[in-house]
Amino acid sequence: MVDKEKKWNFDLEDPILRGAVVTHNKEFLWPNPNPPMLDAVKKPAVKAKKEEVVVDKYQETLMSALKTTGLLSSILALGVICPDPHFLAMTTTFSLSVVAGYQCVWGVQPALHTPLMSITNAVSGVTAVGGLLLLGGSYVP
């Protein structure tokens, strides 16, 4: 930006300087134009129309109802054969937490999965240790 005689010399052809300059000679230059390498990339002029997909809500609802029925039936069957009511309560809590955790992670954008998973794993670890302590005994059930 400064030449050999210590005077200001703005070369607006320099892409780095051009990106940093907002005004020059009382002229507003922002936003700066794309660098030449980006101008070389051509964008398609016309986008093809997407075909509309018809979703069958009946089948979707039926599958959801069957999954819920299967889950509740398996909890009921586990309740019939389990030796201890505390075991059933903890298994039910664990199953519901797995479903809630899955739904929580599924709705998050992929860029946020790593931070979310680290927090989820930490909470799951603390929950697992608490569950083991509730089973009775000390650190080993």
Quick take:
This protein has two domains: 1-40, no CATH class; 57-135. The protein is 57% helix and 3% strand. It has helices at 15-20, 36-39, 57-81, 85-106, 113-135, and strands at 23-24, 27-28.
Task: Characterize the structure shown.
The protein is mostly helical and 141 residues long. The chain has 2 domains: 1-40, no CATH class; 57-135. The chain contains 5 helices and 2 strands. It has helices at 15-20, 36-39, 57-81, 85-106, 113-135, and strands spanning 23-24, 27-28. It has a two-stranded antiparallel ribbon with strand order 1-2. Helix 4 (85-106) runs antiparallel to helix 5. It starts with 14 loop residues before the first helix and ends in a 6-residue tail after the last helix. The relative contact order is 0.05. The model has no long low-confidence stretch (mean pLDDT 76).
Write the layout of secondary structure elements.
Elements: H1 15-20, E1 23-24, E2 27-28, H2 36-39, H3 57-81, H4 85-106, H5 113-135
Largest sheet: 2 strands, antiparallel
Count of individual beta strands: 2
Mean pLDDT, all residues: 76
Work out the helix count: 5
Q: What fraction of residues sit in β-strands?
A: under 5%
Please state how the strands of the largest beta sheet are arranged side by side: 1-2
Could you state the order of secondary-structure elements as H and E?
Answer: HEEHHHH
Calculate the terminal CA-CA distance, rounded to whole Å.
Answer: 72 Å
* Poorly predicted regions: none
What shape does the CA trace take? elongated
Helix content bin: 55-70%
Number of domains: 2
CA-atom Rg in angstroms: 31 Å
Task: Supply the helix-strand structural class.
Answer: mainly alpha
